[in-house]
Amino acid sequence: MSIVFPEWPVPQGVHLAWTQRHGGVSAKPFDSFNLAHHVGDEPAAVDANRAQLLTHLPGCNDIRWLSQVHGTDVKDVCLSANGEPADAAFSTEPGLAACVMTADCLPVFFWQADGRQVAIAHAGWRGLAGGVLAQTLAQFDDPANVFCGIGPAIGPTAFEVGADVVEAFINWPNAKLAFMPTAKAGKWLADLPALAAARLQYAGVAAVYHSNDCTFVQADDFYSYRRDGRTGRMANLIWIAADD
User: Fold this and answer.
1) CA 217, CA 157: separation in Å to the nearest integer?
2) What DSSP designation does 214 have?
3) Which domains are delineated in the chain?
4) Which residue from 2, 20, 7, 19 is spatially nearest to 218, judged by alpha carbons?
5) Who's near 60: CB < 8 A, 6+ residues apart?
6) Other beta carbons less than 10 A from residue 85's beta carbon
């Protein structure tokens, strides 16, 4: 099993992490640390992987798992149950992790400077264009006191899109810099992390950090739906530790 704890400047008591695909019990094509029930993997394997994950998260007693729908709804993990449809969640409860699963889409982490509130959002291009980051940021009192991090996602050399995606972001900050024309007519390479960072900075957050990992290119470490189709999902988690 492989869990990454990025060296971002989070407050005392706040933890965040994402998983890679190594070290679990799932068989191909979900090999091996798949954490999603909805992709066709054996339920017992997913449950075993989730149980193993929880034991490696310091100060985390439970994980709130969402049913992601590429929308903009945000859940309070304290008031919701596993499997509720949403693409973002926030937490003020020590020991209860907010979590989204990804296999190319952006996982975006949010934490308040005083460590009293955290959140996470799942943003494919539709959710990003629809405003899921703004909806998540709205759960905090002041964007100037919020820091953000963008985890592993499909990178700007791999995400080929059509005119519909370009049009969806036409009025976004720095949108022209996030799309590079390809040799194919009507096709562009899109930089989703750059779009997300520009939107967050425009909204006034304190800082945005990047993992700079590409799920599509780094096949040994990450699942990628666009690369493989039938595949697993990574978990991206943020929580306030119960014992700090």
Assistant:
1) 9
2) B
3) 3-154+200-240 (3.60.140.10)
4) 20
5) 15, 54, 95, 96, 97, 237, 239, 241, 242
6) 11
Alpha carbon distance 88, 148 (integer Å) = 14
How confident is the model at residue 1, as a pLDDT?
64
Show Cβ contacts of residue 40 under 8 Å, excluding neighbours closer than 6 positions: 30, 230
Q: Mean pLDDT, to the nearest integer, of 226-243?
A: 96
How far apart are the C-alpha atoms of 31 and 19, rounded to whole Å?
A: 13
Long-range contacts formed by 30-33: CB under 8 A, 24+ apart: 30/231, 30/232, 31/232, 33/1, 33/2, 33/232
Kindly list the strands in the beta sheet with 179-181, ordered across the sheet, starting from the edge strand earlier in the chain: 160-161, 188-190, 179-181
Which pLDDT value is given to residue 201? 97
DSSP string of 57-88, one letter each residue = STT--EEE--B--SS--EEEGGG--TT-B-SE
